[in-house]
Amino acid sequence: MITSDQLHDVLEREQALRGYLDIDGKSIQLEEEELRTQDPAFWEDAKRAEAQMKKVKDLKKWIELYNDVKAAADEVQLAYEYVKEGIVSEEELDANYAKAIELIENLEFRNMLRDEADQMSCVLKINSGAGGTESQDWASMLYRMYTRWAEANGYKISIANYQDGDEAGIKTATINIEGDYAYGYLKSENGVHRLVRVSPYNAQGKRMTSFASVFVTPLVDDSIEVKIDQAAISWDTFRSGGAGGQNVNKVESGVRLRYQFKDPYTGEEEEILIENTETRDQPKNRENAMRQLRSILYDKELKHRMAEQEKVEAGKKKIEWGSQIRSYVFDDRRVKDHRTNYQTSDVTGVMDGKIDGFIKAYLMEFAGSESAEK
C-alpha cells in the first residue's frame, strides 16, 4: 500500500504541472483560437487555416493530457481514503497510484520538448561507415531498430532513399518519420553508433568493431520559412530499386538533387546531395527531395544558433552532434550511451526498438540546456 508521502508527491506533481504548463492560460487561449476558426472567411486561406487548426489541436492535446493526470491524481486521493473504510482494496489503490505516476512522468517528459522543432516530424538518415560488409550490416540493424521504434510508437514511416550493401546490409537509407514530436525524441540519436561483436562474416570468429552514422533533422512543412537559392539547385534522374517489404514500395525512377550551399555566417561552401526514390512519380520525388532540402537547411540554422550560444555559455556541457554517442557490445550484453552513461543489458530489446530509456536519459540531461540555447 502506498504511503501518505507518496500520495502527497502525486498531488504536488500534479499541481506543479498545472503551473508549468499554464493550463489556465492555455484554456483561455484555446477559447480564443477556436473563435478564430468560426470566421466565415476562415477557409479562404487554406495554409493559414491549416496552421490555425494545428494550433488548436496542440492546445487541446496539452489540456487533455493534464486533465488525465488530474483525474488520475484525484482517483488516488479518493482511493486512499476509501481504503481506510474498506471500500477499496490496497491492490486497487496501488494500481491507481501506478497509473497516476505513469501519466505524470509521461507529461513531465513531454514538457521537456518545448522547442519549435521538437514537435515536428523528422528525417532520419543512416550511413554505413568504413569496413564494407561489416558496417553495412550494422547500418541495416540500426535501420531495423529505428523502424521498429517508430512503428511501436504509432509513427508513419516512408522510405525516401534506400541503397543495398554490396553483399549484405545497406550503404545508406533515409527514412521520413511523421508524427508529433518525432524530432524531439529522435534528436538524441544524432551521431556515430559503434558495434562490437563476433563477426558472422569472419571465418576466424574474430571480434570486430563497426561504425555507422545517424543524422536526424526536423521534417519542416510549409509553415516554416526557409530561404532556398533556386540558382544553386541542379537535378539528375536515375532508375533504382528500393527496399522491399511492408510499408516500402519498389520504385523505378529516382531524382538526385544537388544544392550548392554557401553558409551565410562563415562563407564556407559545400554541396548538399539528396537522393529520393520514394515513389514511381518523378515530380513527387522532386517535391520530396525539396522538402528534405528545406529540412537540412532548417537544421543548419538550428545548429548555428546552438554553436553561437555555446560560445557565450562555454561552461555548459556541450552536445557534440557528430561524435560517437553509443556503443553496442553484443558479447558483453551491454549498450551504453557515452553522453549520459545510461546503459542496459537488454541488447535484444534495444535492437528491437526499445530505446526509450536512452531517449529519456538524453532529454533529462540536455533538454533544459537546449531550450536555453535557442
UniProtKB/TrEMBL annotation:
Compartment(s): Cytoplasm
Top-level taxon: Bacteria
Record keywords: Cytoplasm, Methylation, Protein biosynthesis
Domain Prokaryotic-type class I peptide chain release factors: from-to ranges: 239-255
Xref: SMART domains: PCRF (SM00937)
Record PTM text: Methylated by PrmC. Methylation increases the termination efficiency of RF2.
PROSITE patterns: RF_PROK_I
One Pfam family, short name: RF-1
Chain positions found as N5-methylglutamine: Q246
Protein task: Peptide chain release factor 2 directs the termination of translation in response to the peptide chain termination codons UGA and UAA.
Family, per entry: Belongs to the prokaryotic/mitochondrial release factor family.
Protein name: Peptide chain release factor 2
Annotated source species: Parabacteroides faecalis
This protein's encoding gene: prfB
